[in-house]
């Protein structure tokens, strides 16, 4: 998110991260920023006395709310959305942006969490908008749905209309990464060695790029479309799959032919996965998340994949930052706390 917010025109002064490897990556790329390392709850006092801040932004861990995880409200990471708000309370910025998985904003089982977030922010004088966005609608070659809680102190609020001017067609996987060349080449040097084998009991869907055709949960990507959501569990057999012949040579898609053979009941008992099929590399995943190509990552390949998969696409963060900055640049008279609540939760009046 820092990369996108900086591109949108913000200067990041202070950051917090608990993961030691991610801290080293952050320090490599953001040398002028004060990085507070460790558990946010154990470092809250360090935010006391900070003033004249326009924006606090962040993405508290989402595992407790994610459909990719156990969706466990008892997960201690779930309460970090309120630790985030505690930082907002201490610093009192002009605006805040809190990112999380779509489920936190969309599912009824989390509605009380969503309402409590908004209620606490209202009590601090913020008018909150809950905005759900898909990265592919803003030039990111990946379908990645996320929710953003955006609070403004100047009395204004944000709607989906504010994002329309930033809508942009997503490039295809081919357009995004083919310039890197084959995995293992000088310009795409990292290879993901996780093997690809045919699933013993394939799960078929209408599309060849859905279902479960291969071992693990890494699905094949269609070079002529955008990527599915990149998970933080990449690095092994959950890493997405690409067909180099299809990607670089515009050859026939082996995945689509195999899917067609399965649908038509053909005997595939002796079929072997061709060498042209391989897992996505970290350099390609970095581009799909719209990191700058010169962005440096610290750690093993597995830890780098985790950092990439945990990230908000830089270009999506830039759009959110640009919308917020536009609002902050427009001076609007403050409204009262009751008016905020009447917009979103009239039952709280």
Automatic annotation (TrEMBL):
Record's keyword annotation contains Methyltransferase: yes
Presence of keyword S-adenosyl-L-methionine: yes
GO molecular function, one term: DNA (cytosine-5-)-methyltransferase activity
Organism: Acinetobacter brisouii CIP 110357
GO biological process per UniProt: DNA restriction-modification system; methylation; negative regulation of gene expression via chromosomal CpG island methylation
Family membership: Belongs to the class I-like SAM-binding methyltransferase superfamily. C5-methyltransferase family.
Name of the protein in its database record: Cytosine-specific methyltransferase
Main enzyme class: transferase
Keywords for the protein's UniProt record, in alphabetical order: Methyltransferase, Restriction system, S-adenosyl-L-methionine, Transferase
UniProt-listed Gene3D superfamilies: DNA Methylase, subunit A, domain 2, Vaccinia Virus protein VP39
Catalytic reactions of this protein: a 2'-deoxycytidine in DNA + S-adenosyl-L-methionine = a 5-methyl-2'-deoxycytidine in DNA + S-adenosyl-L-homocysteine + H(+)
EC number(s) per entry: 2.1.1.37
UniProt-listed InterPro entries: C5-Methyltransferase (IPR050390), C5_DNA_meth_AS (IPR018117), C5_MeTfrase (IPR001525), SAM-dependent_MTases_sf (IPR029063)
Active site: 62
Pfam family, one: DNA_methylase
Family matches, as SUPFAM superfamilies: S-adenosyl-L-methionine-dependent methyltransferases
